[in-house]
Amino acid sequence: MENGEIPENANEHCPGPNSETAGKSDACQGCPNQEVCATAPKGPDPDLVAIVERMATVKHKILILSGKGGVGKSTFSAQLSFALAAKEFQVGLLDIDICGPSIPKMLGLEGQDIHQSNLGWSPVYVESNLGVMSIGFMLPNPDEAVIWRGPRKNGLIKQFLKDVYWGELDFLVVDAPPGTSDEHISIVQFLQATGIDGAIIVTTPQQVSLIDVRKEVNFCKKVGVPVLGVVENMSGLCQPLMDFRFLRMMETGEHTDVTEKVIEYMREKAPEMVDLIAASEVFDSSGGGAAKMCREMGVPFLGKVPLDPHLCKAAEEGKSCFVDQKCGVSAPALKHIIEKLMTNYWPEEMAVEQ
Question: Which sites bind [4Fe-4S] cluster (predicted)?
Fold first, then answer.
């Protein structure tokens, strides 16, 4: 337990050997290190000093959170990072989703390795001004499961913060796992002394997702992290009408593809329909969605991003949705949200950019 490191055989939710409650909290019951932790002299964690020094060159730190998985949090983290880098900012993207690291794929960096220099671990770079760090770069096999208990996860997050050499950064975007577990407590605890700008929470419109988002908002309030806003992702399926397939269903349940006939008919009989966007509610938003929840909880609502198959494809291919016109419905929505964030929270950076 040198330097206050949490031992690998510690109980889940270990408060840490240097904590005032070390060896005394409910989480310590039955731990093989309980007596040692309870009697050991307490003091400041020297690693926190190293983290403060490392983070001193990072201007803004943003947590991306979600109440539950599958809402597009990592997609938003990746596209936010692409957008900030496109504005010529120096950007770092830190993936602390230890058990489900999807950021390497979403940035087109699968198969890359981490290199070490005399300054520390070097991020893997997409562009010269967009660096990425993830446990995904450390796995010998991308299909390998990471079966770690809380203390080991916390140790790696601490390593990411104190040992990665980001250099001068304008923004560090932290992609966290879903929920309010050990990783969230650790990242807040480790970063609080360095200043966290706040958290962006990603959700989908239906109540089953919003129930968990309310918990995430309350988590932020309890630990003192400002909520920069909530993004309602997958807010209805939107795509050009001409991108749809049209099927004729049979009584047997089978179907016949009549797409070519329908498109030919529209072009001939109703050409004004060719450029239309078709929209459909995928999730039930009759409860008012994220906007209503934000009003009730007193947090900012940043906007809606439609479910766009082209955005899904961009994420699968590790590309920015802003580089061409393919993401015609999602890219403008994301851009509007990012501009709102810049105006509300980082106007000085906008002035430099302009």
Answer: 14, 28, 31, 37
**Termini Cα distance of the chain:** 50
Provide the annotated binding site for ATP. 67-74
Asked if residue 79 lies in contact with residue 61, where contact means CB atoms within 8 angstroms, the answer is: no
CB 95 within 8 A of CB 183: no
Tokens of 162: 């104190």
Q: Which residues are annotated as a binding site?
A: 14, 28, 31, 37, 67-74
Closest CA to 331 of 318, 314, 349, 348: 314
Q: Which residues are annotated as a binding site for [4Fe-4S] cluster?
A: 14, 28, 31, 37
The pTM of this model reads 0.85
d(CA 58, CA 322): 25
- In the predicted model, residues of the chain with pLDDT beneath 50 are 1-2
Residues 112 and 137: beta-carbon distance below 8 Å: yes
Closest by alpha carbon to 73, among 84, 64, 63? 64
Could you give the dihedral angle defined by the CA atoms of residues 108, 114, 119 and 125, in that order, rounded to the nearest 10 degrees? -10
Whole-angstrom distance, CA of residue 10 vs CA of residue 153: 12
pLDDT of residue 58: 97
Residue 251 exposure: Cα atoms within 13 Å on the Cβ side:
0
